[in-house]
Design brief:
The structure is a homodimer.
Chain A: H1 13-24, E1 32-37, H2 41-51, E2 57-63, H3 67-77, E3 84-85, E4 101-104, H4 111-120, E5 124-127, H5 135-148, E6 152-154, H6 162-173, E7 179-187, H7 199-202, H8 206-222, E8 228-234, E9 248-255, E10 259-266, E11 271-278, E12 281-285, E13 296-300, E14 303-307, H9 316-330, H10 338-357, E15 361-362
Parallel strand pairs in A: 1-2, 1-4, 2-3, 4-5, 5-6, 7-10
Antiparallel strand pairs in A: 7-11, 8-9, 8-15, 9-10, 11-12, 12-13, 13-14
Helix pairs in contact in A: 1-9, 4-5, 5-10
C-alpha cells in the first residue's frame, strides 16, 4: 500500500483549513445543506446546535424513525416537512437539492448501510466514528463514495480541536526530543440499557465507543502507523451490562522508531487523558478529548507548565462541520477521510484478535 | 503452590513492624551487625549513612575489591581493619561474630554467588533487587538460606515507605470501589559506560533495574498475583548504550477479577509514578518510589485531593534495615523475603519471553 508508515498527511490542516476555505468560499455562495440521520442525544445536543454557528454549512433536513422527533426538531430548527425523512423514505433524499451532505449519527452497525445509501443518492457523507463495525463495511463505504464521485469523511472532532492540534505540533516540533512513549486512556462507567451494550447494534464494547479515542489519539500523536498491536481484555461477564460486549480492553501499539503506545479503553471507570513522553520531556492533555474544557501541560527541561491557548473562533464541532463543505468547494480530501476511519477499523479488528488469541498481531 | 493468587501476606506490616519489633527487642540487647558487600554509589550514599540511624542494626564490616574504598569508608565509619574484606577473603566472614547480616549490593549477576556464600558462612542475607538474574539463581539463594537456617530478605525499600503503604491501604479499604486498572511507569535516561548496560553484569536492561519498580508496585497494589503477562520491547540497537541490554519494555499484567496493569520500563525517558483506578476513583503517587519526596493524590467522589502524611520516625531505608534484625529477633519472615524476590524473577522471565515470542504468557 505504501501509506502505512507515512506520516498522516493532513495533520495540522484543521486549523489552517478555516483560513484557506474562507478565502476559497466565493462571496455570496450558499451554505451547503446537512441532513442529520438519527436524532439521538449526540445529534440533538452537540451537532444540530453547532450547525447554527457554521460559516459554510447549515441544517437542511432531518431523518428519524420517530415522528415526534421530526415534529419537535423540525419546529425548533425551522425545517419544513418536505425535508423530513424516515427510514422508509430515506432514499428520496436524492431528489432534494437542498441536501449536500448526509451526517450519519446512528448506532455503529447502521453506519455502513446509511452511508452507502447516501452515496448512492449522490450525497457527500459525514459519518460518526467508528466508521463501521468491520473493515469490510468500511471498504464498501469508501467504494460507494468513490463510485458516486462524492466525499466521505469520518467525525473525528478532536482533529479540529486546538489543544489536540497543539499537542500534535509539540511532538512534531522536536521539543520533546525523540518520542518514546504514548499513554492514552479513555473510559467512563457506562449506564445499563442502551444500544452501545447491544453487540448487534454496537459491533463491540468500549473499544468501539470510547477506546477509539485512545487509538486515534495514539496515531495522530505518533504521526505514523503502528507495526504491531497487542491487547488484553478484562470483562466481568456476570455484570449485566457486559453480556454481549467487552468492558475493558487495554492495548499496546508499536510504532516505528521505538515508539510504544499504552492505551486504555474502559466502560467501568472514568478516563480521558493522554501524554506523549520523549527523551527531553512530555506533553499531556487531561482531559484530552471532551466536548470542551481541554487542559494541557508540558514538561520540557524539567519544568511543568500549563499551556493555555486563545479561544478559537470556531469550536471543534463547527470546525469539523465546516471542513467538509470547504473540502467539497476546494476539491481537497478531508483530513479525516474514509481511509482514516478504515485505518482505525483495521486496528480495532487486530486489537480484538490479539486479545482473543493471546498474541501480538503484526500489521500487514 | 497455592500461594499464587493469595493476597500478599505481609502487606502493611512494614509500618507496624517498628512498634512490634521495638517491644520485642530486649532492653540493652546489642544491635545486629551488617556487612555491606560492594561499596558502590547506592551503598555509600544511601545505605551506609542510614545504618547510623537504625535502632536495631549497625554497620560492622565492609567488603570491597578496592583497597582505597576500604581505607576511606573504614576511617569514615570507624570500622577496624579486622572487619575489612575483599572478594578473596570474603568467606572468612564466617569467623567474625560481629557480622550478623550481609547486605549484597553488587551488580545483579553477582547477587546469587555472594548471597549463597553468605548463607554458607552462617549469615543472614539482605540482597538488593532484582534478587538475581534468573529464577534458577533465585531458587538456589532461597535453598542456601534455608539450609543454613538463616533469613533471606530482598531490598524492596518501597514496602517500608509510608505513601506506598497508604496507597496499598487505600486500594484494600475499598475506597476506590473495585480496582480495574493500574498504571505504573518507571524510567530514567541512563548515562553510558556503566555495569547496568553490560548484560554479563546486569542480566538485562531497564526491566532489571528500574522497570522492576513498576512490576513490584503493580503486585503490591493489586494485592494478588498476575495470571497472564504480555510485553512489547523497544530498543534502538544503534544507540551505543543498548548494545547488550534492552532500553524499553512495556508490559501488561492481568490480575484476578478483571484488574489489568499497564506498566512502563524505560532507560531513555524519565518516569516515576503509578495510579490505581477503581469504579469509584483513583489513588496515585508521582513521584512514587524515589529515595524521598513522594507525592500522593486521590480522586474519590470526583474531587482530586493531595494526601499528606506525617513525617515518619524512620525513613524507608531505616525501616528496611531495621526490619531484618526485628525478624531475626522475633522469628518472623521478612515481608519481602526471598520468595517475594522470586515472584518478580518469574515475572521478569515471562515478560522477556512474551516480548521475544510476541505472545501473552500464562503464568503457571
Amino acid at each position: 500500500m505504501g501509506t502505512r508508515r507515512d506520516v498522516l498527511g493532513g495533520i495540522g490542516v484543521g486549523l489552517a483549513a478555516g483560513a484557506l476555505g474562507g478565502a476559497a468560499w466565493a462571496q455570496g455562495k450558499r451554505k451547503l445543506g446537512y441532513a442529520v440521520v438519527g436524532l439521538g442525544s449526540y445529534a440533538v445536543n452537540q451537532i444540530m446546535p453547532r450547525l447554527k454557528d457554521c460559516e459554510f454549512a447549515e441544517l437542511k433536513a432531518l431523518v428519524s424513525g420517530t415522528p415526534a422527533k421530526l415534529e419537535k426538531y423540525g419546529a425548533e430548527y425551522g425545517i419544513p416537512k418536505t425535508h423530513w425523512y424516515n427510514y422508509q423514505t430515506y432514499d428520496r433524499i436524492r431528489d432534494n437539492p437542498d441536501i449536500d451532505i448526509v451526517y450519519v449519527i446512528l448506532p455503529n452497525s447502521l453506519h455502513a448501510e446509511y452511508a452507502i445509501r447516501a452515496s448512492q443518492a449522490g450525497k457527500h457523507v459525514l459519518c460518526e466514528k467508528p466508521m463501521a463495525t468491520s473493515v469490510a463495511e468500511g471498504q464498501a463505504m469508501i467504494a460507494a463514495a468513490k463510485k458516486a464521485g462524492k466525499k466521505l469523511m469520518i467525525g473525528y472532532r478532536s482533529r479540529f480541536e486546538p489543544y489536540n492540534l497543539k499537542a500534535i505540533e509539540t511532538v512534531k516540533s522536536g521539543a520533546l526530543g525523540k518520542p518514546t512513549l504514548i499513554f492514552a486512556e479513555h473510559g467512563f462507567p457506562i449506564s445499563p440499557n442502551q444500544w452501545r451494550l447491544d453487540r448487534p447494534l454496537s459491533g463491540g464494547g468500549s473499544l468501539m465507543d470510547i477506546g477509539i479515542y485512545s487509538l486515534n489519539a495514539a496515531r495522530y500523536l505518533a504521526g505514523t502507523e503502528p507495526l504491531e498491536v497487542s491487547a488484553m481484555e478484562a470483562t466481568d461477564r456476570k455484570d449485566p451490562r457486559f453480556k454481549t460486549v467487552e468492558d475493558r480492553i487495554d492495548f499496546q501499539l508499536r510504532f516505528p522508531n521505538q515508539l510504544i503506545a499504552n492505551c486504555v479503553s474502559s466502560y467501568s471507570s472514568a478516563h480521558n487523558a493522554y501524554r506523549v513522553t520523549g527523551s527531553k520531556g512530555w506533553v499531556g492533555l487531561d482531559p484530552a478529548t471532551p466536548y470542551a474544557g481541554q487542559q494541557m501541560w508540558t514538561r520540557i527541561g524539567g519544568k511543568v507548565e500549563q499551556v493555555e491557548l486563545p479561544k478559537p473562533a470556531k469550536n471543534q464541532f463547527v470546525e469539523m462541520l465546516d471542513h467538509l463543505p470547504e473540502c467539497i468547494a476546494s476539491g481537497r480530501e478531508p483530513i479525516v477521510a474514509g481511509e482514516e476511519g478504515l485505518r482505525d477499523m483495521r486496528l480495532i479488528e487486530a486489537i480484538y484478535r490479539s486479545a482473543r488469541e493471546h498474541r501480538a498481531i503484526t500489521l500487514a
